[in-house]
């Protein structure tokens, strides 16, 4: 009979208990003892959920106080010198200093860098290697958790990140691969410790097998696994891959001396049959058929038909699982109290996915009438890119420039902001009161109008050139549009960890998307009525709305994207007719949807860029379209950004201006349209000094022609206080004035 297991379970708790416990501890409100206890309870209930559902294996080692990659850095002794102080007395606080620079004890330090985990919205802490990097094993936390689960009576399968993926994720040395020989002994030692505890299987995660790997990394797999595979003794190794087809690495994965291989049958269903053919006589094939990254119920009948012949042939050497760790799913659908039944019955969160695996296991034990099912391969966009081919503004950028200059009469180096202004405690309170029906809609709207009026007044005093209304009506840039558009469903408790204690609650694209009525026009018009300066309309772009939602599985993502783009185009045109002639369409998540494999980039960009362009394809030449992105490493997607052809892009760069500037310097024509590289970092509470801003602007002006240069912060200001915003923007506007006079 097929066996069931998962690659990992969410650790935030069904009601975000971990978040609450962490934050209370960080604020100094609770003791470390209380935090440790909360963690233990979450682990225990996660394991219990797996065994109650009837899984054959219970996964251990997926819990983390902040991040699983950081767990490994501590396990292997990859801890920068700046974190060593006070570590002996308080290990957990050292962990939090590594993660966030601060802990209740010890001095603040610069935290580890954080970056996105493959193509998910989860962020991991980047291991920092040095040239003299030595590794040493400190596996106590993992062994403790294994014992904890064993005491609970569980049949445990610990999960550990594989050595190549761990090295790949790190930074700080020219070749992390050179560190491999000194890292491997830690694995050998760890395996013998686990074997001593009676562990039979270890899951080794090597998701980089789904990437375009350089040849030396591919061949390093062979040497590394020959060593650790042979040394694993009685322990069985399950090599886990996910997020992507393995393609040229498929054969490699199965040729390694491991006892089983897991493949992601959501992202790589076309590889299932080849995987079966490549399987060694004793090897286990783990098929990840329940989507670990979405919230829809699995089509168990389909998987029964597909897997039945394999189940018959392989018996208990077929394992069934979710495609990837359930870390990327919300926790428990039973906690959703307000979703209508007809919606709820289509959904499965992590806990329900456990049940699905067990149901599938028993379905595989039953007879099926037909076992012929075609597995459709890949994630190819349909006709969207085709349809969008010629939908773009009539005039090219160079023709639009004089028309826009005439209409807007902006000074050189125009100043603006990215959209949001502080979401004050009062504003949050009023929104909460409104949601709880404690205040009337009329009172709520009046309060929002007052916030907008205040934002406009302050911007006029500061002397900004292009104003914004401040986004007081939005708590979240995707949720807000999702709530106004038809086709979205909002969950009450569908939280997914983004990083540390931060969780996001993506809306669900439930059906076809359309715009029943104008969304932002009233707010923007109201703001515009208060000032003679132009007020910039503010929309979230189609690609970002898509990438930050749970997508449908019955149509290709590009089709939903086009539906959103259609709705937004109506909004853009309504704004234009209402006299809002500068409109920003934010696409901070454009990069997030980029496929992991380079060969698929072109397809993605053809529809993603097409959808963006579609939203503003009908506007007049004098209407100025802005877009905004906030990540620094965009060299790889520079061509796509250019082809968005927004009149103006504002983009994060303060934390890495040199990298951004070199991306322009590397292009023969630089960035061809107007650009506002953020000149200060809004993530920090520090107010940038005027002189510093002048210097930065001048440096940027060496690379970007001044007639195409805008002046703005890195991102929206909603997380800052008005005091910080006022002083920072004043310095920014003054800096622009200073540089203007020197030109
Ligand atoms: N307009 C949005 C804001 O200012 C953009 C947010 C973002 O880039 N993530 O808040
Ligand atoms: Zn931003």
Q: What number is the mean pLDDT?
A: 94
Tally the helices.
26
Kindly report how far apart the N and C termini lie. 77 Å
Based on CA atoms alone, the radius of gyration comes out at 27 Å
Strands side by side in the biggest sheet = 1-10-9-8-7-6-5-2
Largest β-sheet summary: 8 strands, parallel
By DSSP, the count of extended strands is: 20
Helix content: 40-55%
**Beta content:** 5-15%
- The stretches of 5 or more residues where confidence is low (pLDDT under 50) are none
Q: Can you list the ligands bound to this structure?
A: glutamine, zinc ion
Structural class: alpha/beta
Please, could you describe this protein's structure?
With 743 residues, this protein is α/β, with parallel strands linked by helices. 41% of the residues lie in helices and 12% in strands. It has 26 helices and 20 strands. An 8-stranded parallel beta sheet has the order 1-10-9-8-7-6-5-2. Helix 8 links the parallel strand 6 and strand 7. The protein starts with a strand and ends with a helix. Glutamine binds next to loops.
Provide tags for this entry.
743 residues; 26 helices; binds glutamine; binds zinc ion; methyltransferase; repeat; 5-methyltetrahydropteroyltriglutamate--homocysteine methyltransferase; Met_Synth_C/arc
How would you summarize this macromolecular structure in one to three sentences?
This protein is of the alpha/beta class.
Strand and helix layout:
Elements: E1 3-4, H1 17-26, H2 32-53, E2 58-60, H3 68-75, H4 91-100, E3 114-116, E4 123-125, H5 140-151, E5 156-161, H6 163-169, H7 180-196, E6 201-205, H8 215-231, E7 236-240, H9 250-255, E8 260-264, H10 272-278, E9 284-290, H11 300-314, E10 318-322, H12 341-344, H13 350-363, H14 384-387, H15 397-408, H16 425-435, H17 441-462, E11 467-468, H18 479-484, E12 486-489, E13 496-499, E14 502-504, E15 508-514, H19 521-529, E16 535-540, H20 542-547, H21 557-577, E17 582-586, H22 601-615, E18 624-629, H23 638-644, E19 648-651, H24 657-665, E20 674-677, H25 690-703, H26 722-742
Parallel strand pairs: 1-10, 2-5, 5-6, 6-7, 7-8, 8-9, 9-10, 11-16, 16-17, 17-18, 18-19, 19-20
Antiparallel strand pairs: 3-4, 12-15, 13-14
Helix pairs in contact: 1-2, 7-8, 11-13, 16-17, 21-22, 22-23, 25-26
The protein binds glutamine (GLN) and zinc ion.
């Amino acid at each position: 009979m097929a066996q069931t297991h998962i690659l990992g379970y969410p650790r935030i708790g069904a009601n975000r208990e971990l978040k609450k416990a962490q934050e209370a501890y960080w604020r100094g409100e609770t003791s470390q003892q209380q935090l440790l206890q909360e963690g233990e309870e979450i682990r225990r209930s996660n394991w219990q959920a797996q065994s109650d559902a009837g899984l054959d294996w219970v996964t251990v080692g997926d819990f983390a106080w902040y991040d699983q990659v950081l767990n490994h850095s501590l396990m292997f002794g990859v801890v920068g010198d700046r974190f060593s102080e006070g570590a002996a007395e308080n290990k957990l606080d050292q962990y939090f200093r590594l993660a966030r620079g601060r802990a209740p004890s010890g001095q603040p330090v610069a935290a580890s860098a954080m970056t996105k985990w493959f193509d998910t919205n989860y962020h991991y802490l980047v291991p920092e290697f040095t040239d003299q990097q030595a590794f040493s094993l400190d596996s106590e936390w993992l062994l403790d958790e294994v014992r904890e689960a064993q005491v609970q009576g569980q049949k445990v399968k610990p999960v550990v990140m594989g050595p190549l993926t761990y090295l790949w994720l790190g930074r700080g040395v020219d070749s992390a691969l050179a560190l491999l020989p000194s890292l491997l002994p830690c694995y050998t030692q760890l395996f013998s410790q686990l074997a001593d505890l009676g562990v039979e299987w270890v899951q080794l995660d090597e998701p980089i097998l789904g990437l375009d790997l350089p040849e030396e990394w591919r061949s390093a797999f062979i040497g590394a696994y020959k060593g650790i595979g042979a040394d694993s003794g009685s322990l069985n190794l399950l090599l886990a891959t996910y997020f992507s087809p393995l393609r040229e690495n498929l054969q490699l994965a199965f040729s390694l001396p491991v006892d089983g291989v897991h493949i992601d049958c959501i992202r790589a269903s076309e590889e299932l049959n080849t995987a079966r053919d490549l399987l060694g006589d004793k090897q286990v094939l783990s098929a990840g058929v329940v989507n670990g990254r979405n919230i829809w119920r699995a089509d168990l009948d389909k998987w029964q038909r597909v897997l039945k012949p394999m189940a018959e042939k392989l018996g208990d050497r077929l394992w069934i699982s979710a495609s990837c760790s359930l870390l990327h799913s919300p926790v428990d659908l039973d906690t959703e109290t307000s979703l209508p039944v007809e919606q709820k019955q289509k959904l499965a969160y992590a806990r329900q996915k456990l049940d699905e695996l067990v149901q599938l296991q028993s379905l595989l034990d039953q007879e099926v009438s037909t076992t012929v099912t075609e597995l459709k391969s890949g994630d190819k966009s349909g006709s969207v890119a085709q349809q969008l081919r010629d939908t773009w503004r009539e005039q090219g950028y160079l023709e639009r420039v004089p028309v826009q200059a005439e209409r807007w009469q902006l000074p050189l180096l125009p100043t603006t902001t990215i959209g949001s202004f502080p979401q004050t405690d009062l504003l949050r309170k009023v929104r909460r009161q409104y949601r709880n029906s404690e205040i009337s809609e009329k009172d709520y709207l009046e309060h929002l109008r007052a916030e907008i009026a205040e934002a406009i007044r302050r911007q006029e005093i500061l002397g900004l050139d292009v104003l914004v209304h401040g986004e007081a009506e939005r708590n979240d840039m995707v949720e807000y549009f999702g709530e106004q558009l038809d086709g979205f469903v909002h969950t009450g408790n569908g939280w997914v960890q983004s990083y540390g204690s931060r969780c996001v609650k993506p809306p669900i694209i439930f059906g076809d998307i359309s715009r029943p009525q104008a969304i932002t026009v009233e707010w923007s018009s109201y703001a515009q009525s208060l000032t003679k300066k132009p007020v910039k309309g503010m929309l979230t772009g189609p690609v970002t709305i898509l990438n930050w939602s749970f997508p449908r599985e019955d149509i290709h993502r590009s089709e939903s994207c086009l539906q959103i783009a259609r709705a937004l185009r109506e909004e853009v045109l309504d704004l234009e007719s209402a006299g809002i002639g500068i409109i920003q369409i934010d696409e901070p998540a454009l990069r997030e949807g980029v496929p992991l494999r380079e060969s698929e980039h072109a397809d993605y960009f053809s529809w993603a860029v097409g959808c963006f362009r579609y939203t503003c394809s009908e506007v007049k030449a004098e209407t100025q379209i802005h877009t905004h992105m906030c990540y620094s490493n965009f060299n790889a997607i520079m061509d796509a950004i250019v082809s968005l052809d927004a009149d103006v892009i504002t983009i994060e760069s303060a934390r890495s201006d040199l990298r951004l500037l070199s991306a322009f310097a590397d292009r023969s024509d630089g960035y061809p349209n107007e650009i506002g590289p953020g000149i200060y970092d809004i993530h920090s509470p520090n107010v940038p000094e005027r002189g510093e801003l002048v210097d930065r602007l001048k440096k940027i002006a060496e690379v970007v022609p001044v007639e195409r240069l805008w002046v703005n912060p890195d991102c929206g200001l909603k997380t800052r206080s008005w005091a910080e915003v006022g002083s920072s923007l004043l310095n920014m506007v003054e800096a622009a004035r200073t540089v203007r006079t020197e030109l």
